[in-house]
């Protein structure tokens, strides 16, 4: 089997990707601070912001393809730790594109729907980026720099993702479920819209993009939905108490990083290639019964 290097294997998306990809690839996964073991694959501790270390991994592993998911992906963290987040989100990403170019191997990179300002959704791949927070800005810079270094890179803009907890990571639904089960109040935005997908669907999309895409592709879900409406579907599928589910607006919640209101992605290009996320309800049912 061919060797696939997956950075950020201990992250939510990285873990799901490892599980899915190991059926067809010999996987080498990296982590930084959350050690993990995944049967049938090699897991390496690596500081990707150290270029010599990164180069050594490429020389030792000799991957035949790379999917780069490692990132500081919490917008509030990036806003308050600009240098630390820039090192992994921008510098390491560009170095990975350069090393993939040197070796002429396929490279897929996970960007974000937060490269947009939320004023002109749904967004297509050709729409101009205009991030409102530092995380979105870092990803936008990385996209452009990686494609300049290596035009064959598949830049995959990812939506909000959810799914079952992994040994080292959770998605946002775990805290939602916990809060409602404890019959505590859960306030969700009625004025923030995304096109969410499960971690499993997102992983399928990434493997498809690695194989078929050069340039930018959107891997959003089929539905544009507010967090509040998402919460209602979650309540229904997981049979949670609904009385404590409340609506709120973005301006009601003070956050370090500004947030765009509607970064729904138009992913018809990916759908035409065979990317097939399920509806939010079907995705949640699959998690509930897995």
Give your account of this protein's structure:
This protein has 290 residues and is α/β, with parallel strands linked by helices. Helices cover 40% and strands 17% of the residues. The chain is built from ten helices and 13 strands. The protein has helices at 12-21, 51-61, 75-80, 82-103, 134-149, 172-181, 199-212, 227-238, 268-273, 280-288, and strands spanning 3-7, 26-31, 42-45, 65-68, 107-112, 154-158, 161-162, 186-189, 193-194, 197-198, 215-218, 225-226, 245-248. The strands form four sheets. A seven-stranded parallel beta sheet has the order 3-2-1-4-5-6-11, with helices on both faces. Helix 1 links the parallel strand 1 (3-7) and strand 2. Helix 6 packs across helix 8 and helix 8 (227-238) packs parallel to helix 10. The chain is globular, with a radius of gyration of 18 Å. It starts with a strand and ends with a helix. The relative contact order is 0.15. The model has no long low-confidence stretch (mean pLDDT 96).
Listing every helix as H and every strand as E from the N terminus to the C terminus, the arrangement reads EHEEHEHHEHEEHEEEHEEHEHH
Q: Cα-atom Rg, whole angstroms?
A: 18 Å
Helix content: 40-55%
Give the helix/strand class: alpha/beta
Q: Helices, strands, pairings?
A:
Blueprint (H helix, E strand, L loop, with lengths): L2 E5 L4 H10 L4 E6 L10 E4 L5 H11 L3 E4 L6 H6 L1 H22 L3 E6 L21 H16 L4 E5 L2 E2 L9 H10 L4 E4 L3 E2 L2 E2 H14 L2 E4 L6 E2 H12 L6 E4 L19 H6 L6 H9 L2
Parallel strand pairs: 1-2, 1-4, 2-3, 4-5, 5-6, 6-11, 7-10, 8-13
Antiparallel strand pairs: 9-12
Helix pairs in contact: 1-7, 2-4, 4-5, 6-8, 8-10
């Amino acid at each position: 089997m061919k060797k696939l290097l997956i950075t950020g294997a201990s992250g939510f998306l990285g873990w799901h990707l490892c599980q899915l990809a190991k059926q067809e690839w010999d996987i080498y996964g990296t982590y930084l601070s959350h050690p993990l073991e995944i049967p049938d694959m090699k897991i390496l501790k690596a500081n990707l912001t150290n270029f010599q270390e990164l180069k050594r991994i490429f020389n030792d592993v000799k991957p035949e393809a790379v999917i780069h998911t490692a990132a500081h992906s919490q917008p509030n963290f990036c806003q308050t730790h600009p240098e630390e987040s820039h090192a992994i989100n921008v510098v390491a990403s560009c170095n990975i594109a350069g090393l993939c170019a040197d070796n002429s191997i396929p490279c897929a990179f996970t960007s974000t729907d937060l490269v947009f300002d939320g004023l002109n959704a749904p967004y297509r791949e050709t729409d101009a980026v205009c991030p409102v927070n530092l995380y979105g800005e870092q990803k936008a810079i990385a996209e452009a720099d990686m494609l300049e270094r290596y035009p064959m890179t598949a830049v995959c803009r990812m939506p909000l993702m959810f799914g079952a907890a992994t040994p080292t990571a959770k998605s946002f639904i775990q805290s939602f479920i916990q809060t409602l089960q404890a019959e505590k109040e859960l306030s969700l935005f009625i004025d923030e819209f995304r096109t969410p997908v499960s971690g499993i669907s997102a992983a399928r999309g990434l493997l498809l993009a690695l194989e078929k895409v050069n340039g930018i592709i959107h891997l959003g879900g089929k539905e544009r939905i507010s967090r509040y409406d998402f919460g209602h579907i979650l309540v229904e599928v997981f049979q949670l108490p609904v009385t404590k589910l409340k609506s709120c607006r973005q301006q009601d919640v003070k956050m370090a990083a500004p947030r765009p209101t509607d970064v729904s992605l138009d992913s018809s290009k990916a759908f035409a290639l065979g990317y097939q996320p399920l509806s939010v309800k079907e995705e949640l049912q699959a998690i509930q019964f897995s």
